[in-house]
Amino acid sequence: MELPDAKIRETTVIPDEDGLIVRLQIYDGELEPPSYSINLVLSVQIPLAPKSALAKIEHDTLDFADSVLAALVRQKKEELGLTHR
Predict the structure, then answer these.
(1) Could you give the 3-state DSSP secondary structure of residue 17?
(2) What average pLDDT does range 37-51 have in this prediction?
(3) d(CA 54, CA 65)
(4) pLDDT (tens digit, 9 = 90+) per residue, 45-66?
(5) Which of 17, 37, 66, 79 has its Cα between 20 and 30 A from that of 3?
C-alpha cells in the first residue's frame, strides 16, 4: 500500500502551566473542497523547552504521538491475535 504524501499543514502552539499544547493538522490534498485520503488532527501536551524552534516542537509532538499510536497498534494486534510469539 502506497502511503499518502501527507504534510503538516497547520501548527497551533498554546503555552500552559505544564508546557505546551500543540495541535497539528496533517493531510494530503486539499481541505476545501475535500480531496484528501488522510486528515489527522493531533493535540498533544509536551514539556516546555527553552527557546524551542517550531521544527523542534513539531518533531517532539510527532514523536510523542508516534509512540502512543504504536502502542495502540500493538494492543490491537494482540486483541486480534496477530502478534508473533
Answers:
(1) coil
(2) 89
(3) 16
(4) 999 877 789 999 999 999 999 9
(5) 79
Q: Which helix (H) or strand (E) holds 37?
A: none
Total-model pTM? 0.78
Give 27's Cβ-side CA count (13 Å radius): 15
The helix/strand count (H/E) of the chain reads as 1, 3
- Name the residue type at position 20: L
Cα→Cα distances 21→3, 16, 31, 44, 58, Å: 28, 7, 23, 6, 11
- pLDDT at residue 84 greater than cutoff 80: no
d(CA 48, CA 41): 21
Q: Are 7 and 18 in contact (CB under 8 A)?
A: no
